[in-house]
What we know:
By secondary structure, the chain is an alpha/beta fold. The protein is built from ten helices and 13 strands.
Amino acid sequence: MTTPPRPYALLSVGELLADFIGHHVSGSLLDAQDFRRYQGGSPANMAANMARLGNRVALVACVGDDNIGKYLVRQVEETGVDVSNVAVDRYEPTSLVVVSRTARTPDFVAYRMADRCLHPSQLPDSLLAQADIFHTTCFALSKQPAQDTIIDAAQRAKAAGCRISIDANYAPSIWPDREQAWRVLTDYFAGGALVKVSMDDVERLYAEPREPETVFADFHRMGASLICLTLGADGSVVSYENGAKQARIPGRKVDVIDATGAGDAYWAGFLTAYLDGYAPANCARAGAILAKMKLTHQGTLPTTVDRTELYQL
Length: 313
């Protein structure tokens, strides 16, 4: 007997915050002179991108009791994301990130406030049982009480039959205690996680460059079932079936207009293809197609994206 589909393709958990992004391209925040406000936060962007592709998605996050928080919730809701589990904290203001506009990895400063105030009441077992994939980020895991809340919920989600996903977007400026980060990621990966990580993330996490084979061996040993390592212009490598198989996907030339949020677009394309039953190599190609749409478009992706475009290759 076929198992009926769950109500939510993705339950995205973590930061919903305001990005103040440089209006003009600059080398770093030192040179950035003016900024524009955007809805940000990797889990929120993931949720919005998945919704744009026609998936039903719910976001679990926390904002402050202020107009920036109201703006953020409105922006995400307009993409079709269920925001009924976004909490409003009466005491902490909405979190902010100031970001440079660049074709490379952006320079940023984060002001962490309400985003870290996730509580178990926002993630009941009844909600976890409704999702195919439970997704979060290193940013979300870097602060308490969100850290304990998310780890506990991920374990319960796994028990409820969810696949566990994470963007391992580690940054020492966000999470200075690298040893703690490794311990927390080990707890999270143990659920058979689907892991997205970039070479920049790897260098920050290890405090020095590492070869892909080292990353795959370490992450699989920690429990990850699939690892997608993005290589920028050089494409990506996917290690899956707990390391028994690999697929290399070459890069394609892209005239970059705006790199902000490209990783979230990539993983939304990848997971959409994954849920549609495609093999890992084709999931990576789908991710690259959506990332290219984002890289060549300033600001967010279009309101709707025909998911069949992900499978043109």
